[in-house]
Amino acid sequence: MATVRIDQKRRALVRAVPDTYTDALSRYFGTGPTSIENARLTHSKYVEILESNGVEVTILPSDNNHPDCIFVEDQAIVIDGHVLLPVAGHESRRGEQPPIAEFLANSLEGHQIYSMHSPAMMDGGDILRLGDLFFVGRSTRTNDKGIQELKELLDRLGHELRVIDIPSHALHLTSIASAPSDNLILVPEGYISLEAFGDLPNGCELLVMPEKEVYGCNTIGLENNKVIIAEGYPVVKSKLEERGFETITLDMSEIRAADGSLTCCSIFY
Ligand code: CIR
Predict the structure, then answer these.
(1) Which of 114, 139, 268, 269 lies at 20 to 30 Å from 82 by C-alpha?
(2) Distance between CA 41 and CA 72 in Å, rounded?
(3) In the beta sheet, which residues pair with residue 13?
(4) From the CA of 166, how far away is ligand 1's center (Å)?
């Protein structure tokens, strides 16, 4: 999930699909990608959608030694121009970070960059931002020490952090929830207790989706009430449209096959 507010989504970093993508990790939604060509097609449509909605996109070259390298969201946490570089929760993904860190250091000159240190670990995919309120998933990828380091940064920035336990059949918090706007969270039935989100600020609410549309709960909210959604989740689509959102649909099947969702493929900065 983007860790920036909707109005801060001006620039995004993505990373090209490597030749080794069919070796990407897949344990949750996915049974493993089968077509690199289709993954590349989806990825280029993803970039096109962002660009046609006014986002300046930079594409980092892929890294064949890291089949999961397109999932850049996990590798850097950008909050109000500050960057926290987490220790990725899966050891095989730890070498993905250096080019991303270097790019952000050059692009966000003058801003503070903090590096997390093991045994703390965290995937950026465990963070969800609702306006100025943050949620973090405690998951197989994000531990208490990692959460403590994120909290220290958020304390300095004056933002509140709430912790949500992620069930063992889900990868990340953002695999099952997202904020299509700064006052709405999409969340599926049957994964997280709604109480875990606590009292939301005035005007904010949880929109509960059927359990079978869990994958569709990952969306990317953009300015002008637009939201990118995965193809094939009709309830998510109609509920968002009822609320006045303009939905932009993308076939995510080859990304889902590696447990990736819409938000995983970009870092807004
Ligand atoms: C992994 O297991 O790490 C990748 N195959 C999928 C990462 C998805 N990232 C995300 O939800 N932020």
Answers:
(1) 139
(2) 18
(3) 58, 267
(4) 14
CA–CA gap between residue 20 and residue 218 (Å, rounded):
25
Plot region of 221 (φ>0 → left; ψ -120 to 50 → alpha; else → beta): beta
Q: Please report the atom of ligand 1 found closest to the CA of residue 172.
A: 11
Query: Residue 207 has which token pair?
Result: 């929109």
DSSP state of 144: H
pLDDT in tens, 57-102: 999 999 999 999 999 999 999 999 899 999 999 999 999 999 999 9
What ranges do the domains of the chain cover? 6-268
Whether ligand 1 lies within 6 angstroms of the CB of 96 is answered as no
Q: Which of 21, 29, 46, 68 to mutate to test the pocket of ligand 1 (most atoms within 8 A of CB)?
A: 68
The pLDDT tens digits of the residues spanning 133-189 come to: 999 999 999 999 999 999 999 999 999 999 999 999 999 999 999 999 999 999 999
Evaluate: CB of 126 within 6 angstroms of ligand 1.
no
| Cross-strand bridge partners of residue 248 | 228
CATH number of the domain located at residue range(s) 6-268 in this protein: 3.75.10.10
Distance, in Å, from the CA atom of 144 to the CA atom of 9, rounded to the nearest integer, reads: 29
Residues whose CB falls within 8 Å of the CB of residue 8, separated by 6 or more in sequence, listed in order: 80, 268
